[in-house]
Amino acid sequence: MKLVLENDLRETRQKLKNTAEWAATLEKDSDALKEQVPALEQQLQAAQEQTTTAQGEAEAAMEQLQAVSEHAATAQEQVSALEQQLQAAQEQATSAQGEAEAAQEQLAALQQQVEGGASSQEILQGELDKAREELAAAKEKAVAMEQELGSSRDEVIGLTGQVAAALETLSRVCALAGVKGDADTVAVVGRIEDLMGEVQAAREAQS
């Protein structure tokens, strides 16, 4: 019986020793962790500040993206309107050219038929000159419209570059902040990508 008690006592003392060593180890680990807490708190604060900054940049990029989108859409509407005006001017120039050619043919025919009809020839010549003036004016208008259209197309091309840069900025900032685009963001980006496709198609068609 005494031997059993001595063994139990020995085991108990060993367990107490092991427990004391374990407690000491835990205390050391706890102290080490406590020393790391300030650094971890600073890292957490820095991460929170970075996230806040990134979210602010994302909002600013979205505002810039929307502004560029509206500007690009307006420029595209202007290009479409100028294209219609240019087409009308070209049709007018073609019509005036046809009238001038018809008047020229009529004058040539009458000059062969009329002998000494100077007054009739003068009237026809005046009509021919008028038709030529209208033709020249129509051609000048068509040239001016083409120049204005080219300027507007250049503006749209420049805006396309701005849109691409804004999209890249938005993507980078959202990735940094871990923010996923909401439905409005996706819709805006989709509209801009469609507009960029239309501009590219217009450039290819023009070239």
- H/E order of the elements? HHH
Provide the gyration radius in Å.
42 Å
Look at the helices and sheets and give the structural class.
mainly alpha
Helix content: over 70%
Overall mean pLDDT score? 69
Strand tally is 0
Question: Biggest β-sheet, characterized?
Answer: none
Tally of individual helices: 3
Proportion of strand residues: under 5%
Poorly predicted regions are none
Concise description?
The protein is mainly α and 207 residues long.
Report on the architecture of this protein.
By secondary structure, the chain is mostly helical. It has one domain. Helix content is 95%, strand content 0%. The chain has helices at 2-113, 118-177, 183-206. The longest helix is centred in the first third of the chain and has 112 residues, at 2-113. The model has no long low-confidence stretch (mean pLDDT 69).
